[in-house]
Amino acid sequence: MTRKPVAAVLLGTACALALTACAVGPNYHRPPAPPSVVFKEGQGWKPAAPAQVANEQWWTIYDDPALTALEGQVEISNQNLKAAVANYYAAREAVTVTRGSFFPSIGLGADATRSHSGTGGVSLPSGIVQTGSGTRTLYDLSGNASWDLDIWGKIRREVESDVAKAQASAADVAAARLSAQATLAEDYFQLRAAEEELRLLKTSVQDYQVSLKIAQNQVNAGTTTLADVYSARTQLENTIAQENEVELSRAKFEHAIAVLVGKAPSELTLAQGEFTSTVPVVPTGVPSELLLRRPDVAAAERDLESADAQIGVAEAAWFPSLTLSGTFGYESSSLSHLIRASNQVWSFGPSAAETLFEGGAILGQIRENRALYDSAVATYRETVLTAFQQVEDDLATLDYLQTDYAQENEAVVDAERSETLTLNQYRAGTAAYSSVIVAQTARLSAQITALNVQSQRLVASADLVDAIGGGWNSAQLKTHDEGVTETLKSTVQ
User: d(Cα 129, Cα 123) in Å, to the nearest integer?
Assistant: First the structure.
């Protein structure tokens, strides 16, 4: 058998070993999480206006064109989301970098060496000894290749780890997007609530101006004193000052929305809009669905998978490394005759290396990675528990606010009736003006309280959508087997 067939057989054998060997370290399995069968706060509770979140554009359940237009800009312009996307691209390219370790490293070199020797002769790199003295020039053109064979699966485990990190980064993008969308919706509802409060205050200012005029007329008629005028004027001025505070609040919400859509506050001006009276509460399903729908849960689970693969990377250090290397080229003292069969030089062969003593570094690395895995397990389970808590909190909030809103609306009706009766009594001279102020203050307070409760319901509704993951699903990420298998197939083909 000639040398070239022997080299081909060795190369083929090494390739077969590299592609069929088992990777050391534990294979990944998702650890059990502690979900319950049902949500505690969801039992026996029927949402007033349930709406199904069918896709990632979950804000369409509110049927608000202005909100829909703003949400569409989050994807394009939000800077935090852009940073998350850039991090995902970096994580994805890290897979490409690691995957490159599956392939041989090939290089090409050329050099010219001028040397001088005495009468004893000169030994060329090819092994040829040239006798005689003088100055000579040696030309060399060669290619070289080396291949670290992944016999023990170290590189495969590194690829698994990087694939999981990239998937976790993709889930982080989804989490950043959902968080920005939910925050924008919450700010938008509070902005509309501020506008509604301004309308209530402006109406009250008009009513208080009428009351002030009535008090002044009665003073002119001698049926009351200036004290009533001063009281009416004080109430009017306080309400105007309250208008200014609410205007400031609305301006801040508008500024926050501008930043969420990637604009400077000076670049965004929202027209006045209507404050919705419908809260489309989203059905939550069963707790186990959160493991699929929450992007932060998916990210924590992928981080756990990455930590699991790193154990195998560390354990691979116990085994010897095997490298195939070879060179092929030409050497000659004449540049014009360099590329000739007689000037060929080549070498090929395997090399193995094993660490005999490292002072416990490998064992320490394995223990460190196992501890990091345990930490990732705890983080994953804590993320799941936090997800359950957030949903339970939002369900309890919506349940409470739904009852509270009905009671506050009844209070508004009663306060308006009381105000009307008291004002009529004052006009008839049977009630003091202080009673009018009390009734008007109670009516405005009841209206603002009811408005705040409705605003809280809308905010809690958007927060619940965020808590259940919106319309996102972890199926959008490749599973462990799909991601790694696809990467390995593209590597070995």
Answer: 4
CA distance 391 to 27: 32
Q: Which residue has the tokens 């009468």?
A: 119
Domain 23-102+153-319+370-492 has CATH 1.20.1600.10: yes
Residue with token string 């409760």: 453
Alpha carbon distances (Å) from 352 to 21, 151, 278, 322, 361: 16, 11, 72, 5, 20
Residues 167, 173, 174, 176, CA torsion sign: positive
What does the alpha-carbon distance between residue 30 and residue 27 come to, in Å, rounded to a whole number?
Answer: 10
Residue 354 makes CB contacts below 8 A (sequence gap 6+) with 319, 320, 321
Three-state secondary structure readout of 398-437: HHHHHHHHHHHHHHHHHHHHHHHHHHHHHHCCCCCHHHHH
Strands (E), 282-335: 321-332
Q: Could you report the per-residue pLDDT of 230-286, keeping only the tens digit for each?
A: 998 999 999 999 999 999 999 999 999 999 999 999 999 999 999 988 888 777 776
Q: Fill in the DSSP letter of residue 477.
A: S
Structure tokens at 316: 């691979």
pLDDT in tens, 285-307: 767 777 778 889 889 989 998 89
**What is the rounded average pLDDT of the residues 22-42?**
72
Indicate the DSSP class of residue 238. Answer: H
- Residue 146 confidence (pLDDT): 85
108, containing H or E segment:
strand 105-117
C-alpha 131/C-alpha 374 separation (Å) is 68
Per-residue model confidence (pLDDT) at position 183: 94
Query: 468: which DSSP letter?
Result: T
Distant-in-sequence, close-in-space partners of 275: CB < 8 Å, separation ≥ 6: 192, 193, 195, 196, 451, 454
Q: Which residues pair with 328 in a beta bridge?
A: 143, 346
pLDDT at 411: 95
Q: What is the pTM of this model?
A: 0.78
Question: Would you say how long the chain is, in residues?
Answer: 493
The contacts of residue 163 (CB under 8 Å, 6+ apart) are 95, 478, 483, 484, 487
